[in-house]
Design a protein that fits this description.
Strand order of the largest sheet: 1-2-3-5-4
Radius of gyration: 20 Å
Structural class: alpha+beta
Low-confidence stretches: 64-68
Number of helices: 10
Helix content: 25-40%
């Protein structure tokens, strides 16, 4: 049996026997499939079982973490609440808040079979422009459906503080930047000030995913455009839905663009442009997108602050084993793209 850090099979197996009420979990294999600076994701399979028998276990990173950024109870709660909505999410199976089991809270959910697209499409999948267009349209439709969910109707009325959300987000990430700045960057400071001065009057509120993008979804293996599951809800809260659009645009480069993000999948022929995404979202949601460029500017500022934090932790020796080469060079382009959004209305 494998023994990944953070989820010892000798502990996980016997615990699941009681939690899931099934003796077959007594001995399990545990495979870490998503690591790094985010929450950890493991596939847990009973001994002798197949992939169809597996479940997913999610827990915070090992070591020191920010509780607000890795709250397993909140992540479990929002996924459970969305189970009977139009938003595709895995079925939750168990939540453990006893830190004596694995050293941190964790939860278990069903394993959804789907295509996970990160840096490129799998060979033979979505080979045509029409199929790639369908993927983009499907992502937009699911996001609009999420923002249409009434939080109170699914038990999430107290899941966040939507009033003043955007302004608080600017303050939060400005504080983060001030605490982790890698060097003097007056353009970054100017962008933070501009964002604070021009916060739009929020017209809508709803459930915000917080990190909605292509690689946080599982696609239907048979039908490109079908979304099997939306994953990674650790940043979710109640707030301004347009912050989700802003972040989606950050991760959505178009053909001929050079953006400081890892994946260029959306530059392939067929994927909708950002303006086409905005038009489809507005049509499906009825949202007023006249202030959308502000949310795009904020997304780039937030991303730059996140990158600066990674650079600072790396310089302090707190990122052992993780390659952060070139991260500092991403900050400047992000600041410029954020400025272009505010000054020129660039999306």
């Amino acid at each position: 049996m494998s023994t990944p850090v953070g989820a010892d099979p000798a502990v996980v197996g016997p615990y699941l026997v009681g939690a899931l009420g099934d003796e077959r979990w007594r001995r399990v294999d545990v495979e870490l499939i998503a690591a790094g600076m985010s929450n950890l994701t493991y596939v847990v399979t009973p001994e002798g079982g197949s992939a169809d028998d597996s479940v997913i276990l999610r827990r915070p990173p090992t070591g020191a973490v920010l509780a607000t950024a890795h709250d397993m109870e909140r992540e479990h709660r929002v996924i459970s609440a969305l189970a009977d909505t139009a938003v595709p999410v895995p079925r939750t199976l168990h939540l453990c808040t006893d830190t004596g089991v694995l050293g941190a809270p964790f939860y278990v959910m069903e394993k959804v079979t789907g295509v996970h697209v990160v840096e490129e499409l799998p060979p033979g999948y979505a080979d045509t422009p029409a199929q790639r267009r369908a993927i983009g349209d499907g992502l937009v439709d699911v996001l609009a459906d999420l923002h249409a969910v009434d939080p109170a109707a699914v038990g999430l009325a107290d899941f966040g503080r939507p009033e003043g959300f955007a302004a608080r987000q600017v303050r939060r990430w400005t504080k983060q930047w001030d605490a982790t700045r890698d060097r003097d960057r007056p353009d970054m400071d100017a962008l933070a000030a501009r964002l604070a001065e021009t916060v739009p009057a929020g017209r809508r509120s709803g459930i915000v995913h917080g990190d909605y993008r292509l690689d946080n979804c599982l696609l239907d293996p048979e039908t490109p455009g079908g979304i099997r599951a939306v994953l990674d809800w650790e940043m979710s809260t109640l707030g301004d839905p347009l912050t989700d659009i802003g972040m989606l645009f950050l991760y959505w480069p178009e053909a001929g663009e050079d953006r400081p993000v890892l994946s260029t999948v959306t530059t392939l022929p067929g994927f909708p442009t950002r303006r086409e995404i905005a038009e489809r979202y507005a049509q499906r949601s009825g949202a007023d997108l006249s202030d959308l460029s502000w949310y795009v500017g904020f997304a780039f500022f937030k991303f730059a602050a996140i990158v600066a934090g990674i650079v600072a932790r790396s310089a302090a020796g707190a990122m052992a084993g993780k390659d952060t080469t070139g991260f500092a060079e991403r900050i400047g382009p992000c600041v410029e793209l954020g400025r272009a959004a505010l000054d020129d209305g660039a999306l």
